[in-house]
Amino acid sequence: MSDAGMLEEFLAGAFVDSAVFALRPDYRALLLAVDGIVPGPGDQDSDALLQAAQAAARRALNGGPAEELPHVAAWREAYRAFGAKPQRTRNSLEALLRRAESGLPRVNRLTDYYNAVSVLHQIPLGGEDLTRYAGPPRLVRATGAEPFDTVADGLAVTEHPDPGEVVWCDEAGVTCRRWNWRQARRTQLREDTSAALFILDALDPVTDQELRAAADDLVARLTRLGPGVRAARRLIAAGRAPDGED
Asked: How many beta carbons lie within 10 A of that of residue 4, not counting itself?
C-alpha cells in the first residue's frame, strides 16, 4: 500500500455475508487499514499501555468472572448460534480478560497495542499484516473446505473450519476462525510489519460511538509509530450504507 486511496480501495472490497447478519443482526465490523508504520519490537510505551489495560481489566471484573460482563456474554451467545462451545473456544476479548490478572502477553509492538486497546475499550479486536492478504477480507459462514494455516504442537499445520462456522477469510483461505477466536499464522503481525489491518467487532450493548472511540484510540497511538502513518476505515453493519472515515 502506498497511499490512503489504496487503503480505501482495499476496504471497499470487504464484506460481511448476509448469513452472518442472520445470526446476529446487531453485529458491526469496523475495519481499519493502516500504512506507513515504522516497525519494531515491544517497547516501554507498549508495555505501559498493557499495564494500564491490566489494571482496567481488574476494575471491570471486580473479582467476578468475565462471562458475566454483558458484552462478553453477548459473544458467548453469538458463538453458540453457529455451534461453537464458548467455554472451550473463547472470543479474543474474554481470553485477554482472563489473562489480565497474571499479565497480558507481550508479543510485538503492534500486537501489544491492539491487545491493550481491546481490553481498555472492552471489544474484540484483531490485527493482521495487510501485505500478506490475498484480496480483501470477508466474513462468511464456512463450507468446511477453506484452509486455515496455524500451529499445533509447535508445527505448522493446515486445518479446516467446521461447516457453518463464522470465519474471516480472503482468497487464500481463513484468516481468523470462529469470528474472533484464533488468527492464521500467514497474516499474523510481525516485528517488520509496516501495513496492518485491524478488525474491531461489536455486538449490543456496545454502541457505534463506543466502537468508533476504540478505533480513534488505536489510530492515535499508531500515528506515533512513524511520520508517514496513514489510515482508512470502514464500518460495516446490516442494512446500512458503508461508513468510511479518515
From this structure: 15
Residue by residue, DSSP assigns 173-185 as EEEEETTTTEE-S
Cell numbers for 14, please give them: 470487504
Q: pLDDT by residue (tens digit) across 221-238?
A: 999 999 999 999 999 999
Q: Residue 83 region, left (φ>0) first, then alpha (ψ -120 to 50), else beta?
A: left
Name the helix (H) or strand (E) containing 169: strand 166-170
Residue tagged 481470553 (cell numbers): 95
pTM of the entire predicted model? 0.95
Torsion of CA 128, 131, 133, 136, to 10 degrees: 100
What's the N-to-C CA distance of the chain in angstroms? 16
In whole angstroms, give the CA distance from residue 191 to residue 60: 31
Helices (H), the chain: 4-12, 18-23, 44-61, 70-81, 92-100, 109-121, 208-222
Does residue 9 sit in helix, strand or coil? helix
Q: Which residues contact 108 (CB under 8 A, 6 or more apart)?
A: 40, 41, 42, 189, 190, 191, 193
